[in-house]
Amino acid sequence: MSRFLASEFPDLPPEACLFHIIPVPHEATVSYGGGTSQGPAAIIEASNQLEVWTGEENPGVRGIYTWPAVSCQGSAADVMDNITAATANALALRANAIPVLLGGEHSITFGALRALCELYGEIGVIQFDAHADLRDTYCGSKYSHACVMRRAVADLGLPLFQVGVRSLSPKEVAYRKEKAIPHLDAREFFRRGGLAWLREETAPLLPEDFPEHVFLTFDVDALDSSIMPATGTPEPGGLFWWESLALVRRCLWGRKCIGLDVNETAPIEGFSAPTFTAARLTYELMAEVCIANGL
Questions:
Q1: CATH code at 89?
Q2: Collapsing DSSP states into helix, strand and coil, what is residue 106?
Q3: CA nearest 272: which of 53, 49, 22, 23?
Q4: CA-atom Rg of the chain in angstroms
Q5: Count helices and strands in the chain by DSSP H and E runs
Q6: Rounded distance between C-alpha atoms, residue 145 and residue 121, angstroms
Q7: Of 248, 218, 247, nearest to 108 (Cα)?
Q8: Number of domains within the chain
């Protein structure tokens, strides 16, 4: 597997890099379309066609190191342990390193969160997603992609803020209410006026008591299926490009982002636009981390 943006940046040692790309080609619990195991490699390949100036930032100059893909053999618990170890290893090599995990299915977030909690203590999770992922189990597995935020809340005790959700089960709705999980669902965002409302709105999106240190997890199906069809469970009525980036920036205001992931890209053979979009999204999120963290 090649390096993320190897076409533009030198191959520096991990100690010299702020961003640590960790590919996790895990695909075990997908419930509709498959192919997410191919997502990390496709994103990395597409990254080498990116221009590095976003219009505001060039995050790559802080250094990007790409790790070998995490082993996804064995049980779900084994894979989570491997992800935790890989994330912890990156964090140990440089102070304030930013792990950037590329999935793979969304369940991989849980492994990364365990490593970050060990280092930082309580952290908050900001989730961009079409789905709430709050089921306790799904298809017999508590490590399903449909359960990952339930694991974050119930098992790790982490505060959660959800953005862009538009597909939930009745039990997830009840759990949200029980735990008072704050959210800005896609329907509500568009009902308020979308990007025009966001430009005028000055109040913080996150609760005031949300932790300072946050992890940003972005399931690409948060994006509208017209611009991101290459995902296992595409949902209409999603976020568009500038809306997504504006919402990410607002969510990160006053917070320090300590890591992120981009999940659920399922490449479509012969159709490069969606994987290029996922690569650009990854790089743009790295830029938003630089802005939020004052780097």
A1: 3.40.800.10
A2: coil
A3: 49
A4: 17
A5: 9, 8
A6: 24
A7: 218
A8: 1
